[in-house]
Amino acid sequence: MLDLSNPQDPRTRAAAGKISGLVGLFCNVLLFGAKLAVGILTGSVSVTADAMNNLSDAASSIVTLIGFKLAEKPADADHPYGHARYEYLSGLAVAALIVVIGVELGKTSIEKILHPTAVTFSLPLALVLVAAVIIKLGLCLLNRRLGKKIRSTALLATAADSRNDAISTAVVLIAAGLQTAFCWQLDGWMGLAVAAFILYSGTMLAKDTISPLLGETASPELQKLIVDVVTAEEKVLGYHDLMVHDYGPGQRFASIHVEMDRREDPLECHERIDILERICLEQHNVHLVIHYDPVITDDPQLQLMKQKVQQLLAVIEPAAGMHDFRMLTMEKEIRVFFDLSLPAEKMGIKARLKQQLDAGLADEPIPVQTFITFDIAM
């Protein structure tokens, strides 16, 4: 019995991938043989195209098996963050295979449209295609359940591919029946539709697997899990600069800055930070590194200046988040240092934002000079 209680455990993921791969391989080889035989006997290019789609799915199942097995390998000297990204690479290989077969089947279907031939509708043809729809829906449900349980984009993409296969097979069955009943030459067009489904599935799968390989932003759900752990600590006054690095399922590393009162005992703060890091690893399987930022909370002048900057920001750009506020009072000027986080699409307004803040602080008795570091908001 497969235990999915710890979905980020490499052994759990490998077991789920093995089940998906073996079941998919058996079913798709069976469907390929049956559809190919019926397609040749009836002269239907759309059924033959559907058979080739099952052959590509069988190859995809083999790649899935290999990918999950390699992803299970532990970290070594050359790969200190493990091999979990093999799961993404296997999905990318599957996508490439699907796209190539989709292109070839599209060419065959176009030839059938230009040079149509009769298709013989028969009971074996109908039975094979109906059985294929049922089996593909079953594979879809299996992969969707496993994919959701272990949060695997590869298995969820495989589930979507099985769903698309069920739809395309149903279309082929309808086309064969219509061509027999009304003598409509639909076989080539349906074959082209199947090829389009295959290309769509391959493209979507490629998109889902390339994105984490390039380093996509952590999901809002994962960010919230980390933030909830950190903010549960009563001595944490604020946090910023959360960054998450994904080295594959079960191999996620994160860093975050937390603000604590400078008057707190540094040794106690360090101990509490260590506890937070352990909680994040044990509960969410995220290797978290926390940077300790001591902040001044007992300087009235600094607090007044910080409050004024926050009020200006609330009017000028509410989406901006401020942190690491420091102030240096000199004989002839005051220098304030702080970081501003902005959404990626608003990074172009940095110069204008600084000008407006400087203008808003121009009425201070002593000239104020701002030193701002801009970050992309997570």
Description:
By secondary structure, the protein is an alpha/beta fold. The protein is 62% helix and 15% strand. The chain is built from 10 helices and 6 strands; from the N terminus they run αααααααββαβαββαβ. It has helices spanning 10-42, 45-71, 86-114, 123-150, 153-182, 187-214, 220-231, 266-284, 300-316, 350-360, and strands spanning 238-246, 252-261, 286-295, 321-329, 334-342, 368-376. The strands form 2 sheets. It has a 3-stranded mixed β-sheet, with helices on one face. It has a 3-stranded mixed β-sheet with strand order 4-5-6, with helices on one face. Strand 4 and strand 5 (334-342) form a beta hairpin. Helix 1 (10-42) runs antiparallel to helix 2 (45-71), helix 4 (123-150) packs antiparallel against helix 5 and helix 7 packs antiparallel against helix 8. The protein is elongated. The two termini are 39 Å apart. The model has no long low-confidence stretch (mean pLDDT 82).
Mean pLDDT, all residues: 82
Structural class: alpha/beta
* Total helical segments: 10
| Helix fraction bin | 55-70%
Roughly how many Å apart are the termini? Answer: 39 Å
Radius of gyration: 29 Å
Report the biggest beta sheet as strand number plus sense, adding barrel if it closes.
Answer: 3 strands, mixed
Task: Produce a short descriptive summary.
Helices cover about 60% and strands about 15% of the residues. The protein has about 375 residues and is an alpha/beta fold. The strands form two sheets. Strands 1-2-3 form a three-stranded mixed sheet, covered by helices on one side.
